[in-house]
């Protein structure tokens, strides 16, 4: 039986568990706060420490926020900052993270095959049905997104950085700081407005709303989004670590 160490890396916390071939957790998930400042070397050692507290696994899946292309970090929004999300970008951290081969570094550090994807893509792998056009939006520190067509993972787009209103990006418009400012009721209404605005762009067959804040969407607002919009548990960011290998098989994302 092939086991997978799945690590879900966010702006505020890093969670991990070991999964069997069916995607069932074989150990209780662990979580640590994301340390800042966070150069790649500390990122690797943090993941090694977390993985060392779990049963050994045959391979590794890591979800990282930002644009990850073939396991290489093109851009990441949080880890280049001095003290976490919405804080000032550190030029030295920006240089270290830009173009960093996360897949290669993690495969070497753990000594097992590694798959490194955008965190929303791993989340999506845990919930999509594999039929039609399926969009995944994760609601947490910011906004994550992943698109699947017939179960095939499409090239990643950083929807979170697109402008939405008043010169702000989706990341700012629906992220955690704005949720705290607005309160859940008004924030939920804003999520519905975003869903309504994106519907003619993607024409999805099913939209999944995940991430740590999806559970805070008010039922009355969710009901108005339509039957093709569903809320999924945040644990998908971990359990998707198995299926992600299958859904990204044609993208050269894994290192063996």
UniProtKB/TrEMBL annotation:
Keywords assigned: Kinase, Transferase
InterPro entries hit by this protein: ATPase_NBD, ROK
Gene3D superfamilies linked: 3.30.420.40
One Pfam family recorded for the sequence: ROK
Gene Ontology terms, MF aspect: kinase activity
Family stated for the protein in its record: Belongs to the ROK (NagC/XylR) family.
Name this protein carries in UniProt: Polyphosphate glucokinase
Organism per entry: Micromonospora taraxaci
């Amino acid at each position: 039986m092939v086991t997978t160490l799945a690590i879900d890396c966010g702006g505020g916390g890093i969670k991990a568990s070991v999964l069997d071939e069916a995607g069932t957790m074989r150990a209780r998930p662990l979580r640590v706060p994301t340390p800042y400042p966070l150069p790649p070397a500390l990122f690797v050692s943090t993941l090694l420490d977390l993985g060392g507290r779990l049963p050994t696994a045959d391979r590794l899946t890591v979800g990282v926020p930002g644009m990850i292309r073939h396991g290489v970090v093109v851009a990441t929004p949080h880890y280049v900052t001095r003290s976490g999300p919405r804080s000032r970008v550190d030029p030295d951290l920006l240089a270290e993270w830009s173009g960093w081969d996360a897949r290669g570094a993690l495969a070497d550090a753990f000594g097992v095959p590694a798959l490194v994807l955008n965190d929303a893509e791993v989340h999506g792998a845990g919930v999509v049905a594999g039929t039609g056009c399926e969009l995944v939006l994760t609601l947490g520190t910011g906004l994550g997104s992943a698109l699947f067509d017939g179960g095939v993972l499409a090239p990643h787009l950083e929807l979170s950085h697109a402008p939405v209103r008043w010169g702000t990006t989706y990341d700012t418009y629906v992220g955690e700081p704005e949720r705290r400012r607005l309160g859940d009721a008004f924030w939920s209404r804003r999520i519905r407005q975003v869903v309504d605005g994106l519907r003619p762009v993607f024409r999805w067959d099913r939209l999944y709303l995940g991430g740590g804040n999806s559970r805070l969407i008010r039922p009355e607002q969710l009901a108005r989004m339509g039957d093709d919009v569903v809320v999924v548990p945040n644990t998908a960011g971990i359990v998707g670590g198995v299926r992600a290998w299958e859904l990204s098989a044609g993208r050269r994302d894994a290192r063996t």
